[in-house]
Amino acid sequence: MTETTPNHTQTVEGWAAMDSNGKIAPFVFKRRENGEDDVTIKILYCGICHTDLHHVKDDWGITMYPIVPGHEITGVITKVGSNATNFKVGDRVGVGCLAATCLECEFCKASEENYCDKVQFTYNGIFWDGSITYGGYSKMLVADKRYVVHVPDSLPLDAAAPLLCAGITVFSPMKYYNMSQPGKKLGVVGLGGLGHVAIKFGKAFGLHVTVISTSPSKEKEAKERLGADDFILSTDPERMEQSGKRSLDYIIDTVAAKHSLGPILELLKVRGTLVLVGAPDKPLDLPSFPLFFGKRNVAGSMIGGMKETQEMMDFCGKHNITCDIELVKPDHINEALDRLARNDVRYRFVIDIDASSDH
Ligand code: NAP
Ligand code: ZN
């Protein structure tokens, strides 16, 4: 624990939830000294992922309070350990969900550390030294060099921050399931943080992108601002069936709450693939009929490995892909979380960590 870990001597200001009412308040805590494999990062921006909301409210029953959320972190390096030769002071960098992995298993060796059985996350994890990890809703982070990526100079650090989780989470399955063949048809279910980046990657890969959403108000923006080709309102089952049956090669489902998979599966062509990346607190029902009548596949995917995260960042640099964000001051994190819970976000809140308080 931080209090009893001897080299946790650096005092950091951050923001934490103390219990499952999920309210965020200022919180001062300790971080470790910068070790030889570490870099120290002055955090400038941190995205607010729906996973943060699940955690502060203990939706999944795994939260260790106090919790300092945040795994869409960008900032500038202020200190470099002697082994962290890939980085220098002043570098613009990002940290996503990973804080530690075993470094030895087949997944760690294959740059798929995210599937390491001993994976520990940037917050609510247990680091190698036994301390509980605290995330990016804070002013400074000490991170092991293996879990830090460079942010291309062309990308602004605020609008790039959500790429560290939302971005890689949709990029990774798109690559793995070969969703980068121009002309193929992708469906994106849920137009929030993950969903809006999925549209952008889809268009960059030359795909035809259909949004499947519960929010009629998002249709215009999805098409005009984000470049989606089509929009299906999932609350209208008749229209779902008429307009989309057997029309899509793949679907990425980002929905954060329990919902029905049958009508979504019907949208897939024969042999199409549905990848679930949303993390509802209750299991989803998987009906057999639309599965076997269409020889369809259902898969899951969790964030991505570090090599792929850097690849995604560089891809975004090259194609000028950033997130559509609403910047909030640290004083307004609770408001942002409330709005995220109400599905009132276009399309990612990002905390401006350095912004002065209102008081
Ligand atoms: P978000 O910004 O809140 O977007 C989720 C979208 O789902 C909403 O914008 C909404 O889109 C749709 N939705 C429909 N019904 C909903 C309901 N009852 N409650 C909430 N959303 C509903 O969330 P996000 O940050 O993109 O994250 C989405 C999910 O992915 C979360 O469960 C998160 O924990 C999970 N996640 C997983 C990974 C991974 O590695 N697999 C990584 C990051 C996040 P419409 O208005 O268009 O219907
Ligand atoms: Zn996330």
UniProtKB/TrEMBL annotation:
One of its GO terms (molecular function) is zinc ion binding. GO terms for biological process: lignin biosynthetic process. Pfam families: ADH_N, ADH_zinc_N. InterPro entries: ADH-like_C, ADH-like_N, ADH_Zn_CS, CAD-like, ER, GroES-like_sf, NAD(P)-bd_dom_sf. CDD domains: CAD1. Its EC number is 1.1.1.195. Residues 19-351 form the Enoyl reductase (ER) domain. Pathway: Aromatic compound metabolism; phenylpropanoid biosynthesis. Keywords: Lignin biosynthesis, Metal-binding, Oxidoreductase, Zinc. Its cofactor is Zn(2+). It catalyses: (E)-coniferol + NADP(+) = (E)-coniferaldehyde + NADPH + H(+); (E)-sinapyl alcohol + NADP(+) = (E)-sinapaldehyde + NADPH + H(+); (E)-caffeyl alcohol + NADP(+) = (E)-caffeyl aldehyde + NADPH + H(+); (E)-4-coumaroyl alcohol + NADP(+) = (E)-4-coumaraldehyde + NADPH + H(+). It is an enzyme of class 1 (oxidoreductase). Homodimer. Belongs to the zinc-containing alcohol dehydrogenase family. This is cinnamyl-alcohol dehydrogenase. It comes from Phoenix dactylifera (Date palm).
